């Protein structure tokens, strides 16, 4: 990922992007070409591993071989920026449209899991991750045991050994202060995606 200095974020903030996104695209290079799958993920407390699962009917997992590397892409905020949001254009009309976004890329080695106990533990941890704070919180064990066993047979577990993470927050930092402020103000009353970007447009200057 190309990350100019103005848009760099540290590893802790990059992991926050992964957490906030919740799900991402896992991309493999296979003998048949590139293959991707979009899945929710669980990150270990030490950031050393990421786990998930997918339907066994999805052929993506068949591209995983010993020591297979992958790229995982997570986007936590994303919105189009029109030049009409830039007050500076009235003085300097040389402006172009762009896109504001907050994203992270994780590189790692992937391996698959077919063990029922591993898959059950992963499904439980993933459900707890996304049910946390809901009222009521749904639990895997709310379903009949026989049904859970059937569902576990229909999925493949994914474990990623993290090699590196890189994050980027492109939020108009390269524009004059009046332009950044106006973009943020316009986004704050815009679409859900725009409001999400506006909430992240804070600057340490």
What structural keywords apply?
28% helix; 205 residues; 8 strands; elongated; Pnp Oxidase, Chain A; 8-stranded antiparallel beta sheet; 36% strand; single chain; 5 helices; alpha+beta
The appropriate CATH architecture is Roll
- Quote the beta fraction: 35-45%
Specify the CATH homologous superfamily. Answer: Electron Transport, Fmn-binding Protein, Chain A
Radius of gyration from the alpha-carbon trace, in angstroms? 20 Å
Number of domains: 1
Mean pLDDT: 96
Concise account of the structure shown:
This protein is an alpha+beta fold.
Describe this structure in words.
The structure is a single chain. This protein is α+β, with helices and mostly antiparallel strands and 205 residues long. The chain has a single domain (5-200), classed as Electron Transport, Fmn-binding Protein, Chain A (Pnp Oxidase, Chain A), CATH 2.30.110. The chain has 5 helices and 8 strands, in the order E-H-E-E-E-E-E-E-H-H-E-H-H. The protein has helices at 11-21, 116-131, 145-153, 177-188, 192-200; strands at 8-9, 23-30, 33-40, 42-43, 49-55, 68-81, 98-113, 155-170. Strands 1, 2, 3, 4, 5, 6, 7 and 8 form an 8-stranded antiparallel sheet that branches. Helix 4 packs across helix 5. The radius of gyration is 20 Å and the shape is elongated. The model has no long low-confidence stretch (mean pLDDT 96).
């Amino acid at each position: 990922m190309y990350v100019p200095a103005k848009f760099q974020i540290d590893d802790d903030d990059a992991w926050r992007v992964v957490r906030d996104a919740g799900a991402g695209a896992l991309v493999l290079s296979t003998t048949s070409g590139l293959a991707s799958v979009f899945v929710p993920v669980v990150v270990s407390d030490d950031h050393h591993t990421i786990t998930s699962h997918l339907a066994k009917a999805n052929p993506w997992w068949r591209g995983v071989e010993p020591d297979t590397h992958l790229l995982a892409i997570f986007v936590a905020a994303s919105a189009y920026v029109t030049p009409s949001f830039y007050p500076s254009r009235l003085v300097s009309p040389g402006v172009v449209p762009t896109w504001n976004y907050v994203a992270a890329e994780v590189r790692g080695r992937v391996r698959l899991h077919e063990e029922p106990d591993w898959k059950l533990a992963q499904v439980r941890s993933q459900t707890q991750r996304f049910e946390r704070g809901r009222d009521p919180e749904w639990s895997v064990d709310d379903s009949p045991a026989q049904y859970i066993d059937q569902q576990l047979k229909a999925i493949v577990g994914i474990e990623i050994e993290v090699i590196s993470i890189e994050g980027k927050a492109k939020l108009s930092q390269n524009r004059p202060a009046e332009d950044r402020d106006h973009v943020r103000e316009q986004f704050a009353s815009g679409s859900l995606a725009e409001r999400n970007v506006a909430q992240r447009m804070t600057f340490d200057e």
